[in-house]
Amino acid sequence: MRVRKAVILAAGLGTRMLPVTKVVPKELLPVVDTPAIQLVAEEAVRSGIQEIVLVISPGKTALLEHFKPAPELERALEEREKHELLELVRGATRLASITAVEQPKPLGLGHAVLQAKEAVGAEPFAVMLPDDIFDCDPPLLKRLLEIATAKDAPTVALLRVPRADVSKYGIVAATPEEEQIYKITQMVEKPSPENAPSELAIMGRYVLPPEIFGLLENAKPGVGGEIQLTDALMDLARRRPVYGYEYCGARYDLGDRLGFVTAQVAYALKRRELADNLRSKLRSLLDAA
Ligand code: UTP
Fold first, then answer.
1. Is the CB–ligand 1 distance for residue 14 below 6 Å?
2. Does the residue 271 lie in any domain?
3. Percentage of the chain with pLDDT > 70?
4. 67 partner at 20 to 30 Å CA-CA among 41, 122, 179, 222?
């Protein structure tokens, strides 16, 4: 299976991060100094993706702007001989071919994917949620693409979550096939802890076939007119095998306050220029708390 395109969903309201998301798209919020959407686009490119389609809402065009050249800023940095900063700014513009499609209203992940139907065409593609950040090398999407290719089947990322948290996620019933690889037999969106078929939650990376678009078009809208991606995935799993890869590394939910703050600290501790000072600042903060 050759996957060239990734669809990054970024048309949501980001209500859990209000008030900042009133004006600033959640996906532009940084991890230390790099917007989440850039980290995810970099993951896509490191996984072999050549074309990225952003799904944005009408008010979130700044997301696409981030990947376009900024001639005035670049000229100013050049004049000041800030070569490293110039490379940082230009880096985002050279990643891949990046285009955007609009989701006029936030009617769910399934509806968001459907907006990319024409841009994707009749080929398998990846879907990425930019508020889910996976800190691993090689990147998580690369691993999913390898499995999808080996099995010639749609593949999603799974993460084992505490049973008390299952109601926040889509949870699967699955049969282990190989180390960390499962065949998915059932999916339930946001089950109660008692009714959850497992503790394996679907995370924000998917490799999907183009037939998912037809299933999304036929999906019945649920609460608030939303079209869920999980429902279409379940339809898909009834027709052909769908696999899950259990990710065991670090994951940060940037769409949630605690996840956002934790990601800042974790990524800053990995930066040589920040780590020592941050460690001592954290120690004094903890002593004073
Ligand atoms: P989330 O459910 O985490 O984002 O969707 P949200 O709805 O924006 O956030 P809250 O719950 O109100 O705080 C994961 C990703 O999918 C996108 C979001 O932009 C986010 O990056 N999304 C969500 C869409 O593109 N369209 C939608 O209709 C819903």
1. yes
2. no
3. 100
4. 122
| φ/ψ of residue 126, rounded to 5 | -105, 150
Whole-angstrom Cα distance, residue 142 to residue 225?
Answer: 33
Give the nearest ligand 1 atom to 253 CA. 3
| Domain residue limits at 48 | 5-255
> What's the one-letter identity of residue 55?
V
Percent of the chain having pLDDT more than 90?
Answer: 96
In a domain, 283, yes or no: no
* CATH number for 136: 3.90.550.10
Ligand 1 atom closest to Cα of residue 105: 28
Please give the number of the atom of ligand 1 that sits closest to the Cα of 56.
Answer: 25
Residue 36 covered by a domain:
yes
Q: Is 131 in the pocket of ligand 1 (CB under 6 A)?
A: yes
State in Å: Cα 250 to ligand 1 middle: 21
Confidence of residue 1 (pLDDT cuts 50, 70, 90): confident
Classify residue 242: in a domain, yes or no. yes
Give 120-135 pLDDT, tens digit per residue. Answer: 999 999 999 999 999 9
